[in-house]
From TrEMBL:
Coiled coil: none
Name recorded for this polypeptide: FAD-dependent oxidoreductase
Biological classification of the source: Bacteria, Bacillati, Actinomycetota, Actinomycetes, Geodermatophilales
Occurrences of domain FAD/NAD(P)-binding (ranges): 6-308
Organism superkingdom: Bacteria
Provenance organism: Blastococcus jejuensis
InterPro entries: FAD-oxidoreductase/Apoptosis (IPR050446), FAD/NAD-bd_sf (IPR036188), FAD/NAD-binding_dom (IPR023753), FAD/NAD-linked_Rdtase_dimer_sf (IPR016156), Reductase_C (IPR028202)
Pfam families: Pyr_redox_2, Reductase_C
Cofactor needs: FAD
Keyword Flavoprotein: yes
Length: 415
């Protein structure tokens, strides 16, 4: 009997890959193995509704236990894969070993191992009261501590830090966000959007410090009591949330000798440098999904799902699908940001609406070509740009700011 496919990493990408294999008619065994003790669950609510206490743990699971049985997916939780080798005979087969000594032969291997939270290494970084936010166990610990915290410092002004800051404010804590660069969410959005978020969080009572680097944490009785910054500022804190990015889990890929470059390098069909091995999700770097140029790392649900679907197709030899238009969302309290496309490399942007009204959109262009939209509390504008990108259509930059004209009336075929 075939050893089937081994999917290492049981989360967004791994589960999607297993489900897509079945949908494509794959009948061999599928083992989905993950080191977390939980069945696959959604991470986005961990910094939103789950952290705020408005969604319980029972809302996080992707699927019921019965689903795995019925789909013939052998889900193994709480087992870390520590070793993996491929047969030397150019077949795709191999064997994986787990921390508990289990051996799992496979015919095809998929790596969907995700990323782990980047940790601070400054003095005091291991004190109690310093929390990270990657998995449900992190979120459960943080949630419990938030209820009693009066002074919260969030280190990192990216999406997760700002979402956590919004939740902490809703609990009534005094909140300070400390960001090392000169603006919030700087890797993802234009300065006008960064500035909007700074002002919006400040309006809600959160202090925002940019160009501020954490040098140490001060303790009182083994617990964090203050955050020290490079300019000598000392911020009192009884709880610290750190959201300073992630590190892709490349360790197994490196053992296999697969090309890694800030993530496991894959092609548009999710094949690694050893084409029989596929990889998907936060652990990968991939060609730009729309232009094919360069390599990008996309930490998003959409990208994990899209790549996992492509990986399953590659395993069964199904044809390529249409290119994926990336999309993303971030809910920071009542501020809902929706992003479609990738703005990387833009040379022009158009602001539609007044940012301080807290309802606006920014459309990004390169050489007149529509690249992306950041829409704050503006779902219709988001939807129109996403549709335009999907259809290869555009919206003329010189008319996009005109709020009197619905964006959908401006949709036109790209030159
Ligand atoms: C707090 C939070 C909020 C987010 N909010 C949003 C959002 O609003 N919108 C959005 O689009 N995206 C959001 N994301 C990102 C999104 O959740 C990720 O992009 C997505 O989870 C990636 O899925 P993945 O399967 O690639 O990786 P992961 O979800 O990281 O899963 C990888 C799994 O593999 C396991 N694993 C790793 N190595 C091994 C091994 N050797 N053996 C066994 N198991 C292993 C890990 O333990 C993990 O369970 C958020 C992420 C977080 C943490």
């Amino acid at each position: 009997m075939s050893a089937g496919t081994l999917v290492v990493g049981a989360s967004q990408a791994g589960l999607q890959l297993a489900v897509s294999l079945r949908e494509l008619g794959y009948t061999a065994p599928i083992t989905l193995i993950g080191e977390e003790p939980h069945a696959p669950y959604q991470r986005p609510p961990l910094s939103k509704d789950f952290l705020a206490g408005t969604a319980g743990p029972e809302t996080l699971a992707f699927r019921t236990p019965a689903f795995y049985r019925e789909a013939g997916i052998d889900l193994v939780c709480g087992e870390q894969v520590t070793d993996v080798t491929l047969a030397s005979d150019a077949s795709a087969t191999g064997i994986a070993g787990t921390a508990s000594g289990r051996e799992l032969p496979f015919e095809r291997l998929a790596l969907t191992v995700g990323a782990s939270a980047r940790r601070l290494t400054v003095p005091g970084a291991d004190l109690a009261g310093i929390c990270y936010l990657r998995g449900v166990d992190d979120a459960t610990v943080l949630r419990a501590q938030l209820t009693g915290a009066a002074r919260v410092v969030v280190v990192g002004g990216g999406f997760i830090g700002l979402e956590a800051a919004a939740v902490a404010r809703s609990f009534g804590a005094s909140v300070t966000v400390v960001e090392a660069t000169d603006r919030l969410i700087g890797r993802a959005v234009a300065p006008v959007v960064s500035e909007f978020y700074r002002r919006a969080h400040e309006r809600r009572g959160t202090a925002v410090l940019t160009c501020a680097t954490v040098t140490a944490f001060r303790e009182v009785e083994g617990r964090v009591a203050a955050v020290l910054l490079s300019d000598g500022t000392e911020l009192p804190a009884d709880l610290v949330v750190v959201g300073v990015g992630v590190i892709p889990r490349t360790e197994l890929a490196e053992k296999l000798g697969l090309e890694c470059d800030g993530g496991i390098v894959v092609d548009a069909r999710a094949r690694t440098s050893e084409p029989t091995v596929v990889a998907a999700g936060d652990c990968t770097v991939l060609p730009h999904p729309l232009t094919g140029e360069g390599r990008v790392r996309l930490e998003s649900v959409n990208s994990a799902v899209s790549q996992a679907t492509a990986a399953a197709a590659a395993i069964v030899g199904a044809p390529d699908r249409a290119p994926n238009v990336p999309w993303f969302w971030s809910n920071q309290g009542d501020l809902r940001l929706q992003i479609a496309g990738l703005s990387t490399g833009y040379d022009e942007f158009v602001v539609r609406g007044e940012p301080d009204s807290e309802k606006f959109a920014v459309l990004y262009y390169r050489a007149g070509r529509l690249l992306a939209v950041d829409a704050v509390n503006s779902p219709p504008d988001y939807m129109v740009v996403r549709k335009a990108l999907t259809q290869g259509a555009t919206i003329p930059a010189d008319r996009a700011a005109d709020e009197a004209t619905p964006l959908k009336q401006l949709l036109m075929a790209a030159a």
